[in-house]
Description:
The protein has helices at residues 14-34, 54-64, 76-79, 83-95, 117-144, 171-183, 188-197, 203-206, 218-225, 270-287, 322-327, 339-356, 360-404, 409-438, 442-457, 464-470, 489-494, and strands at 2-9, 37-45, 70-73, 99-102, 157-160, 163-166, 234-236, 239-243, 246-251, 258-260, 301-303, 310-313, 318-321, 337-338, 471-476, 482-486. It is an alpha/beta fold. The strands form 6 sheets. A 4-stranded parallel beta sheet has the order 2-1-3-4, sandwiched between helices. A 3-stranded mixed beta sheet has the order 11-15-16. Strands 12-13-14 form a 3-stranded antiparallel beta sheet. Helix 12 crosses helix 15. The longest helix has 45 residues, at 360-404.
Amino acid sequence: xxxxxxxxxxxxxxxxxxxxxxxxxxxxxxxxxxxxxxxxxxxxxxxxxxxxxxxxxxxxxxxxxxxxxxxxxxxxxxxxxxxxxxxxxxxxxxxxxxxxxxxxxxxxxxxxxxxxxxxxxxxxxxxxxxxxxxxxxxxxxxxxxxxxxxxxxxxxxxxxxxxxxxxxxxxxxxxxxxxxxxxxxxxxxxxxxxxxxxxxxxxxxxxxxxxxxxxxxxxxxxxxxxxxxxxxxxxxxxxxxxxxxxxxxxxxxxxxxxxxxxxxxxxxxxxxxxxxxxxxxxxxxxxxxxxxxxxxxxxxxxxxxxxxxxxxxxxxxxxxxxxxxxxxxxxxxxxxxxxxxxxxxxxxxxxxxxxxxxxxxxxxxxxxxxxxxxxxxxxxxxxxxxxxxxxxxxxxxxxxxxxxxxxxxxxxxxxxxxxxxxxxxxxxxxxxxxxxxxxxxxxxxxxxxxxxxxxxxxxxxxxxxxxxxxxxxxxxxxxxxxxxxxxxxxxxxxxx
Length: 496
């Protein structure tokens, strides 16, 4: 029996780390007693009310691929404190003939103990809802006393005993400069480009976020320009979650928000703040326009250097690197290409390919090379299958080594993770070769492609359908030259 072990704690606090260790110890004892093999450990440090947990999603994905036979958790609340999510996990398990077992013995579908599933799912969700209500009440109480209840203070401030005070760096002056630049007529993205070019750390970098981006974004500028904290007022409770099981947030009417005027030192005067809000609303009305047209090569063009998509720019009548257009030359160069020029290149390539594919001699060569490729693919499949089977045998023995004390838990985890990574990689390769092996002969593919090309050749202009059917990706170099990846590229290579 292949067992997937799911372990979860809510936070990374020290006492929760101890809980992680205790849960692991319980599972080692349980698995040794049952004589099951460990498929993998799935460990999350996250609230049970959300389904957006990295390893829970990996567990669900692996369940759909039937990589194990049973899911084990300490109790149902470890898997989910959300009724809808609990049922989703249960249904996925049932559809793939996977059992669910909890160590508190409340749920054990192997023994037919599943009739109380709904009751436990409801009970754990209600418990989370009550906890959420208590926390919100406590935070509201702190807010009414003038304490900042967020974990991250606004850019330009720092926290001192729960109160906002001016940061002792350049960020307060930078806030003033952002407001000034906007009143001078610069837009959100233009201000962001200026700050990126001058090397100012982003708000996320200032507070030390792990996923902090390197460049300022227009959305960050807008957030600063609309934050009422900068006039010295403590404004909290502007949004709330719809429920404990949903991350959707809804706006709270201003009359119900918790506002403490002059709670801390202001960075921006009330007059300037109001002027910015009015100016922002006016510009919004002036810039209102229909949704931008999707151009012929949208979602096909990419910068050869930074990898970002190219954007269509009307006055250029062509495309420019999105990174350059948004952040400036500090980040990338133009990599521009005219749309008309690109259309002519693609049409020329398609016409040349259509002529080449009409040659009977080339069709014969392609079929021979296709047969050679199929034989090579069969050898690759057999080799991969042998390697996968050997790796599975090695993994089967690991739990025995762990139970006997020959290897430590850390060594077991490292070996299991390494084995799973290699097994996953080998399986991906095998799937790819099996897909190739199952394809129709190259001759049939060429015939179908030739038929499509002939149909398209009747058209004088390049159409979106032609681009969709024949073009995979286009990379644009710094000098404007292009490298076009066609969906019939493999065919073209065989003719060489």
